[in-house]
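Exercise: predict the structure of this protein bound to pyridoxal-5'-phosphate.
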Amino acid sequence: MNERELFRQVADYAGDFVETLETRPIRAEADVSALTTALGGPLPEDPVDPQAVLAALAEAVEPGLVAMPSGRYFGFVIGGGVPAAVAADMLTSVWDQNAGLYAGGPAASVVEEVCRGWLADLLGLPFDVSVAFVTGAQMAHVTALAAARHHVLAQAGWDIPENGLAGAPPIRVVVGEKRHVTVDRALRLLGIGASALEIVPADDQGRMLVGELPDLGGGPTIVCGQSGEVNTGACDDLEAIADAAAEAGAWFHVDGAFGLWAAASPALRHLVRGAERADSWTTDAHKWLNVPYDSGFAFCAHPDAHRAAIGVTASYLIHADDKRERDQMDWTPEFSRRARGFAVYAALRSLGRRGIADLVERSCAHARRFAELLDAAGASILNEVVLNQVLVRFGDGEHTRDVIRRVQEDGTCWLSGTDWHGEHAMRISVSNWRTTEDDVERSAAAILAAAGLHSRV
Ligand SMILES: Cc1ncc(COP(=O)(O)O)c(C=O)c1O
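Solution:
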């Protein structure tokens, strides 16, 4: 077997796939039975030639792939992969560094440290924040909230690494009504259940009603704000939450899975004003930075608490003596891990500061154009389109559900729904560098056709 030949063959499959994005339906075409038949069967007894395995795999999965990297995929909040990041990710597999310790791969470690500084600068965070490169916002919440838990309990005289949670002073966690569900799951994994949450109501866009924040003083307290509500893109008044947290000495955590990237745009930065005053932040690389899955970050303004909550040692490990040499397992709740920094580095470097601002602003302009086209044809736009999210209803919720189903079947674009104020609504999320004005117009036309409406623009 010739490895170079194999990699060339795979590069061709990659090129073939990318070239189909313009013409293929966005939805998958094969169902579970067809895919199980194509991929299943007994485990081979004997080795199979790798080129034959890859050829068969590429053929079998083809109809089961969703064209997620297409510029006409508007479901959930899904970025594409900018070419440099995708290519760097391919090399990451080939280099196959175990990025747990500096000793396991100095380049993988240094690239994270370089990205840490670039990201802090881009996102307007304190220059000396610590970072964990994790799988996504979910694990970023776990990491950041573990640091928060450590810090607020240490302030109350409780050593959580030593004593655990049993018998600890209770932690108050104050969250907005429209927080993302991953905040709850992170807290659950950290031993803080639903009944411990103090929930602040939200306005009609999903922003926390900061006037209804409880007093955050009187014991270990964490308050979670949000930049970018998953349906509307609305951002909490982070300045007001920062004021309340600072006054009470509470820990302020920001979920900025996609919305924090507004900070990278001079035109949109005002939406996340106050974010820079938080104690910890969550954001994703695989959403708006357009790094391939899976990739996100936890940042922390208290590196000591971060490291104390997450770090690990063992006699057989080789920890760096030089402070500049980053041992990733001290920051990331994983031991052995993929060298995620390379793809992030490639995305940041290939886009540059201007390219990232442009990507964010372009996505928002596309979202506004969607809203304009659909509104003009008679759809109801339910949100203020401040960022990259559009919430749409066609008549009532049930009709909207039907329209979504027809759009998905048609295959020109892909999007899905949500319940908003008790009724179903269509969600459109624009987060992909590939999306063009033409993609938006073609997709809006397909949506209107599915709704039996005609463009009036
Ligand atoms: C506001 C917000 N927080 C957290 C998440 C979870 O992100 P991930 O899927 O990267 O864990 C999302 C996902 O859309 C989100 O929109």
